[in-house]
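Next up, a specimen:

>
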Amino acid sequence: MSDDKEKESRSEEENTRTTGAAMGGAIFGASVGGPFGALLGGIVGAFLGEAANDSKKKKDKKSG
């Protein structure tokens, strides 16, 4: 249940970071591998965007 609350309280910056990474991955994947590459790149980009969000949260907690 705590995961649901955490997802609801995401900031606009976190949503933008994840969406941008997914879109960038999809564009790169499409240019390299066509439609399948776009799908795979979008998924990988979304995971990388989430990893960047987690990293930023940990950095903010250490300095705060």
